[in-house]
Amino acid sequence: MVYTPRSARRGALFAGSVAVLGLLTACGTGQTVHSSSPMTSSGTAAPATGDSSAPAPSGTATSSSPVSSAPTGAPSTAPTRATATSGGGTTAVASTRCHTSELRASVGRNDPGAGQENFPVVLTNTSGRTCTVRGFPGAAFVNASGGQLGPNPGRESGSSTTVTLKPGQSAWAGLTFSNPGVSGAKTAKPAALLITPPDERDHLKVTWTGGEVPVSGNSSAVFLTVFSPGTAP
């Protein structure tokens, strides 16, 4: 039996204890670093909302659903254009004068009296908008070839007012002249009457069925009045 000194035995025991301790430490470290077990946390997935500014609670799994980017309080429909005024009424649409292309012309029935022949010249709004007429029409009698018969009609005195015509509404102006049988004026039988709306250049053509009209001589003048609402006096 080989004798081993006590100091040597103590050194061997100390070295063995250190080796066992080192082995236990290495095993614990390996279990911690190389663990493949997934970590779990309590709670449910947060709902997707429009408010993306609030952070998710700690320990809560986030949802994979897309988050809406619409700002909070955004209107669900496009704004509509208001047509009412603050007083509760509707906003009036400014009208403009009626153009020739928006009108239909006609000549009403003669209403004779005191040696005078009186025909209403009527303009009717055939457009889809509201427009206005103001003042006197232009007029001229023409034969079948388009040649003018007699001078341009004169204008009777009267105050002009603006006549507003909604679609389908009419305004009239009087066309008057002395009865040729009374005045002795020379006459002609027109084929048509050309009517020009106020402030317009283009005319409307109406077949004339009113018989003879004065074209020259004494008391041969034809007169027009300003427009008034309606179709006849």
UniProtKB/TrEMBL annotation:
<feature type="compositionally biased region" description="Low complexity">
    <location>
        <begin position="52"/>
        <end position="96"/>
    </location>
</feature>
<dbReference type="Pfam" id="PF14016">
    <property type="entry name" value="DUF4232"/>
</dbReference>
<feature type="region of interest" description="Disordered">
    <location>
        <begin position="30"/>
        <end position="96"/>
    </location>
</feature>
<protein>
    <submittedName>
        <fullName>DUF4232 domain-containing protein</fullName>
    </submittedName>
</protein>
<feature type="compositionally biased region" description="Polar residues">
    <location>
        <begin position="30"/>
        <end position="44"/>
    </location>
</feature>
<dbReference type="InterPro" id="IPR025326">
    <property type="entry name" value="DUF4232"/>
</dbReference>
<feature type="domain" description="DUF4232">
    <location>
        <begin position="98"/>
        <end position="214"/>
    </location>
</feature>
<keyword id="KW-0732">Signal</keyword>
<feature type="signal peptide">
    <location>
        <begin position="1"/>
        <end position="26"/>
    </location>
</feature>
